[in-house]
Amino acid sequence: MSTIKEQLYNLCIAYVQNRMQAAEDAFRAAEQASNDDTKSSAGDKYETGRAMMQQEKDRNTIQLNEASKLMVALNLIGTKNTSPIVETGNLVITDNGKFYLAISAGTWVVDGVSYFAVSPASPIGMKLKGLKVGDGFELNGKGYVIEEII
Predict the structure, then answer these.
(1) What's phi and psi for 34, nearest 5 deg?
(2) For residues 33 and 14, what is the distance between their CA atoms, to the nearest angstrom?
(3) Which tens digit of pLDDT belongs to each residue from 56-90?
(4) 32 Cβ partners below 8 Å, 6+ apart?
């Protein structure tokens, strides 16, 4: 049986894989549309269409590169690290939420409990890093006290 931290890690991996697949699919679709666009007598229309498809391919390449960076970050984390001080890869339980410090991937619900996947570079990630059980912080007028670090 996997731990909650392993489940959250696997959800983040699946999230990034889905983003990568969507970017690859969109890139291929734009490339195919560009290739299928035949030169018509209206040359400007043809050139405009090809330029738009190139922009679309460029956008999808950027999205794929960003998703690849997220995958690299996840691969560096793993799920076995434990520390008395909050660091990347920890699951942090506070009195006002449960935070998995990995990548910004939104909220995951596991066994009916909500967990927030947050980046270490996010505002809450920066507040969490370096704290220990019993430490508190404030963000956007809301107080948090760390109850557990997993």
Answers:
(1) -65, -40
(2) 28
(3) 888 989 999 999 999 999 999 877 777 899 999 99
(4) none
